[in-house]
Amino acid sequence: MNPKKKIILTGDRPTGKLHIGHYVGSLQRRVLLQEDPSFDKIFIMIADAQALTDNADNPDKLRENVLEVTLDYLAAGLDPTKVNIFIQSQVPELTELAFYFMNLTTVSRVQRNPTVKTEIQMRNFEANIPLGFFCYPVSQASDIALFHGTIVPVGEDQKPMIELTNEIIRRFNSVYGEVLDECEILLPDNIVCMRLPGTDGKAKMSKSLGNCIYLSDPKEVVEKKIKSMYTDPEHLKVSDPGHLEGNAVFTYLDAFCKDEHFERYWPEYKNLQELKDHYTRGGLGDMKCKKFLNQIMQEWLEPIRQRRHYWEQHIPEVYQILRQGTETARLVGQQTIAQVRAAMRINYLDDEELQKSQIDKYTTTK
To answer: How far apart are CA 212 and CA 206, in angstroms?
Structure first.
C-alpha cells in the first residue's frame, strides 16, 4: 500500500453515446484533472462488465457502444498520453478481487445501500434482481481497490458506494494486513453539474426518455432540442413573471453560461443574474433565452464535434489506444492481485517457503 500516491479511478457504463450531462458531471472535470501534476495516475474505465449486469441479453449494445464512449472521451479532450483508458471486461483481475470481496460483506449490507435501492426501483427488478446487478457495489469496490484508487470523481448519489468501498477495504486490511488503499470522493465544483436535468425538465437525462443532448449531436439537432426545451409552464405571455425553479433553460445556463458569453451574444446584460432578474419580473420571452442558450451550447460543443470527426476517421488508432490502455491496466491489476493473494495466503504456487516446509514435513530420511 502506498498512501502517498494520488490515483484517480473513474469511468462510465457503455450503454449509449455520452451526453452533456456526462460532460458537465464528469468529463469536463477529468479533462482538467489530467493537467494536474499532483496526480500520479488517472485510470478511466469503460465499465462494460458492469453494464452487462442489466444488459446480459443484449451484448451487441455494449459491443457497439464501447467504441462510441471511447470516441466521446477523445472528443471531450481526454489525452491518452495523460490518462489510461481501458475496458473493464478485459482485466480479469477485477473479477477475481470482486469474488474475494464478496466474502467480506453481507447481503443485508448491500440491501441497505440507498443507491442500490434506487437503481433496483428504476429498473423495475423488484424480486427478480440479477445477482450480478445486486453485487455491483462490491464489483465497484474491486474496480477502485485493484488500481489503488485514492480519488474517485463521482456525483453525490454515489457517496453510499464509496462508503461501502472503504468499509470493504478496511475489512480486508484488518483481516489480511495493510494491502489496499482507502479512497475519497471528489464531487463536481458546480452544484448544478451534479445532476443536469433532461431537456423535458425531468430530473434524469437518459436515452430511454429521449431528453438528452449528445456530445455528438449535429448543430441543427442541438438547436431543435433547445427550442423545444421545457421552461416555465406558467410563463404564457412575455409580460408574465417567469419562474426559475424547474426551468431547464436556466438550469443549463447555470451550468454552461459565463459572463463573457453576454459580451459576445447578448450585451444587453452583464451577467446571468441580470438576465434572471429580468425574466422573473416579466417582460422577457422564453425564445430569446433559448436562442442565447443555443449560442452558448454551440460554442461549447463545436470543438468536441470537430475532435470526434477526426477520431472517427482514425478508428484503428482508437483501438490501439484501448489496447495499450488495457494492457497497462492488466499489469497494474496483476501486481495488486499478487499482493492480495500473498496477504490472503493463497499464493500456493508462488510461495517457496510454503513448499519447502511441506517438503521438509513429508520427506523422510533413511
So the answer is: 6
> Taking Cα atoms as reference points, which of 214, 230, 248, 283 lies closest to residue 76?
214
Range of the domain at 324: 7-195+315-357
Q: Using CA atoms, how far apart are residues 246 and 231, in angstroms rounded to an integer?
A: 7
Same domain, residue pair 65 and 100:
yes
Q: For the residues 175-179, what does the mean pLDDT come to?
A: 96
Buried b (16+ CB within 10 A) or exposed e, 68-98: bbbbbbbbbbbebeebbbbbbbbbebbebbb
Structural contact between residues 109 and 164, judged by C-beta atoms closer than 8 angstroms:
yes
Residue type (1 letter), 240: D
- Whether 305 is covered by a domain: the verdict is yes
Average pLDDT of the chain is 92
Distance CA 179, CA 344 (A): 10
**Cell match 463536481: residue?**
188
14-50, pLDDT tens digit by residue? 999 999 989 988 899 999 999 999 999 999 999 999 9
**Alpha carbon distance 346, 350 (integer Å):** 9
Distance CA 172, CA 166 (A): 10
Q: Which three cell numbers stand for residue 220?
A: 441543427
Q: Are 207 and 27 in contact (CB under 8 A)?
A: no
pLDDT above 90 (res 168): yes
| Average confidence (pLDDT) over 319-328 | 98
pLDDT of the residue at 190: 64
Question: How many domains would you assign to the chain?
Answer: 2
Strand 41-46 and strand 7-12: the pairing is parallel
